[in-house]
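Re: that chain you flagged

S.,

Sorry for the slow reply, it's been a week of failed gels. I finally had a moment to sit down with the sequence you sent. For the record, here it is as I used it:
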Amino acid sequence: MTGATESTPVPMVTRVPVVNAANGLTALRLVLVPVFAVAVVVSDMTHAGWQIAACVIFAVASATDLVDGWIARRFGLVTAVGKVADPIADKALTGAAMLLLSWYDRLPWWVTVVILARELGITALRFWVIRRGVIAASRGGKAKTALQILAITWYLWPMPAESAAVGPWIMAAAVVVTLATGFDYVAQALRLRRARR
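Prediction finished late last night. Pasting the structure tokens below so you have them in one place:
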């Protein structure tokens, strides 16, 4: 009688390559950040053509965030590098946009400071609890991202005054949801640490 090991399938550990489509889109988003920033600076937020170009670049870069996450989950391309690089790319894009909008007096500085402080704080919080578990993005977090992207896009696009007046209301909604989800993530992190002790 031969050993049972001959008929027992040996599970194969599949290593996900770091260089894949999902991480490639994340890298593209990072590359587009300085391109977007240059377009905004050249536009001086007064040249409609360059403003439109900056807005389109921002929209394309934002879209890669949705696509890379879907590809990573759908095709099993989730990597440690992607988990770290993806939020960094997100914060770099929205952070650059908000800083530039504030610099050109389109967005109050306090809004930029509040949102960026929350974003950086939650990113640090995720790393603080990463060994104990992952704080998954909630529906509120996704709504927050969507509102921020919509508000920034609204500010970037050259609009008549009547339409432009809607932008602050969208941003106000983004601020409220951003702060609310921030408190929720803090509560999740504290529960996660207590549960793992």
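What I noticed first: Residues 18-196 form a domain with the Four Helix Bundle (Hemerythrin (Met), subunit A) fold (CATH 1.20.120.1760).

Talk soon,
D.
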